[in-house]
Write a structure and sequence with these properties.
Helix content is 52%, strand content 8%. It is of the alpha/beta class. It folds into two domains: 92 residues, no CATH class; 182 residues, Phosphatidylinositol Transfer Protein Sec14p (3-Layer(aba) Sandwich). The chain has a five-stranded mixed beta sheet. The longest helix is centred in the middle third of the chain and has 18 residues. This is Alpha-tocopherol transfer protein-like. It comes from Bombyx mandarina (Wild silk moth). GO terms for molecular function: phosphatidylinositol bisphosphate binding.
Length: 313
């Protein structure tokens, strides 16, 4: 079993909150690999130990839940190709978003064993007609990269800071109920992200009503974790201190351009991995037409139909 060693603080969080026992991880990995080989639509999937550990942690080491998440991760993609196809980091569209620094995990966490803060900047690009699906696509790409790369993200979860300072109604009007439900259905049921808090920054009075409507589309659990702020970050610093924020947000930890350059290079270094996921996507899509003996097949088919109904709506 090949997995990273983690800090003592994260070991404690993983044990207390995720039921992780390092001695049992090889057993769980083997059980999942054996199960994947029994699924006609999943047996061709090439997954590293670290990738599977991420799904096990996201399922709190419940094997049945882990199997369902893996099945959904691959099969629900077929119903939302606009989010999950053509994810080459060197594609011109992806390059434009990477250069703009739309999704930027911060260097440090609030505590050594705490969740990873991630800054989402809508940027000048979203004053134009760029499709919202591109933003959702690259956000999911970063979630997958962090699942592979970052133990704080994988174990303790994430804090999201959404900066709306350069955002107009062009973007928010694309966030229809169908897009919202599709996005959160996948994020909650197929990915392994533990969403701890969402801080919305630089929210103008004109956007507040629209955002309140969008909040109503979220599940109650996530809705309760959303906090909104204007240009005054004083209250935000009670939760996310200046010491870990970039200079543009009153912080001491470098600037946004430094983060942008770092994460652009990091995402590009994962190009072969994302191209492999595109191959996996094609294989699963080709085989999903044939009924699978998977215990989650019926449930996934229903969720695929839900995705498609949302698309039609």
């Amino acid at each position: 079993m090949k997995g990273r060693s983690i800090s003592e603080g994260l070991k404690r969080v993983a044990a207390e909150e995720l039921n992780e026992d390092p001695k049992k991880i090889p057993f769980y990995i083997k059980a999942i690999r054996d199960w994947l080989q029994e699924q006609p639509h999943l047996r061709s999937i090439k997954a590293s130990d670290q990738w599977l550990i991420g799904f096990l942690r996201g399922s709190k080491y419940n094997l049945d839940k882990c199997k369902k998440k893996l099945d959904k991760y691959y099969t629900l993609k077929s119903a939302a190709p606009e989010f999950f196809k053509n994810r080459d980091p060197l594609d011109p569209s992806m390059q434009a978003m990477l250069k703009a620094g739309i999704f930027l995990p911060l260097r440090n966490c609030v505590t050594e064993d705490g969740p990873r803060p991630c800054l989402v900047r809508m940027s000048e690009q979203y004053k134009s007609k760029r499709p919202l699906s591109d933003l959702i696509k690259i956000s999911f790409m970063f979630a997958e990269l962090m699942l592979l790369e970052d133990d704080n993200f994988n174990i303790a979860g994430q804090i999201v800071l959404v900066d709306l300072s350069d955002t107009g109604l062009t973007l928010l009007t694309q966030f229809s109920p169908s897009v919202a439900r599709k996005t959160f259905l996948y994020a909650e049921r197929a990915l392994t992200v533990r969403m701890k808090s969402i801080y919305v920054l630089n929210m103008s009075r004109g956007l507040k009503a629209t955002l309140n409507v969008i909040k109503m589309l979220l599940g109650q659990k996530i809705r309760n974790r959303v906090q909104m702020y204007d240009e005054n970050y004083g209250k935000l610093y009670n939760y996310v201190p200046e010491s870990i924020l970039p200079a543009e947000y009153g912080g001491d930890m470098g600037d946004v351009q430094e983060l942008t350059d770092y994460w652009k290079t990091k995402m590009e270094s994962y190009r072969s991995w994302f191209l492999l996921q595109d191959e996996n996507f094609e294989k699963v899509t080709a085989n999903i037409i044939t009924p699978s003996p998977s215990p989650t097949a019926t449930e996934n088919n229903e969720e695929n139909r839900t995705f498609r109904r949302l698309e039609l709506d």
